[in-house]
Amino acid sequence: MVAMADAEPLSELRSDLAWFFLSWVATFFMVFGGALPYIPQYREIQRSGNTEGFSTHVCLVLLVANILRLFFWFGRHFEVTLVWQSIVLIFTMLALLHLCCDLQQSSTLTTSRHLFTDFDPKYFWAWSRFLDYIQFCLSFTMVCLLVTYLLIDSQLFVETLGFTAVLIEAMLGVPQLCRNFKNKSTAGMSVKMVLMWTLGDIFKTAYFIINATPVQFWVCGALQICIDIAIFFQVFTYEKGAHEKYS
């Protein structure tokens, strides 16, 4: 009887340790998992030396969405894990933009430059320097800071801010979907990136539901999964069309 009594606390301790480990792993993947899909795309751009197959508007979507998400946290606190996830994604998108700007500058022969401070809508998000993208992010952050400061006490504003943030993030794959449709090809796009998008979106949507995060998060997570599947359909369709064309 004494041995059985001693075994019960030991079993509970093992269970607690296992649960702690799984929680830590889940937290780690939530913080850094969102950035992992862009490692194959970063390496693909480095290898090919061009950015034609990748839509930099993906970076725009994620930068805007995660800046808004950070301000949403001030109005309605959710898990700090998601705050760190946003910070990691912001720096990841800036690193990807830095690479794209470097390659575009080295491959462009024209001497004309398009700057953020020109305020020319025609060249929005098609600026010549990485500094211009930084200026946009800082300007957007300052505007969000001012508006949030003035309206932080409005529940309607806070909920709208949160829904806007996750809805924009849910549109993450749309620029790439449109780029593929325009090119009638997925060449230059990392299929590994899209696969990791899909796995990550499934994981994080389940995480949102289990941890009872605001409804905006898991509804838009489900929408992201649908867009990921649509891009996979493009991969299959355009590759099949290319094989038929040259067979």
Characterize the structure shown.
The chain has nine helices and no strands. With 247 residues, it is an all-alpha fold. α1 packs parallel to α4, α3 packs antiparallel against α6 and α7 packs parallel to α9. The protein is globular. The N terminus and C terminus are likely disordered.
Which parts are unreliable, with pLDDT below 50 for 5 consecutive residues or more?
A: 1-5, 243-247
Helix content: over 70%
Strand proportion: under 5%
Report the average pLDDT across residues.
83
User: Helix tally?
Assistant: 9
* Radius of gyration, in angstroms, nearest whole number: 22 Å
Q: Would you report the number of β strands?
A: 0
The structure class reads mainly alpha
- Principal-axis shape equals globular
Main β-sheet: number of strands, strand sense, barrel status? none
What letter string, H or E per element, gives the SSE order?
A: HHHHHHHHH
Task: Summarize the structure in short.
77% of the residues lie in helices and 0% in strands. It has helices at 2-32, 38-48, 57-75, 80-107, 130-151, 155-170, 174-183, 191-210, 215-246. The chain is globular, with a radius of gyration of 22 Å.
Features:
9 helices, disordered C terminus, disordered N terminus, globular, single chain
Give the topology, please.
Elements: H1 2-32, H2 38-48, H3 57-75, H4 80-107, H5 130-151, H6 155-170, H7 174-183, H8 191-210, H9 215-246
Helix pairs in contact: 1-4, 2-4, 3-4, 3-5, 3-6, 6-9, 7-9, 8-9
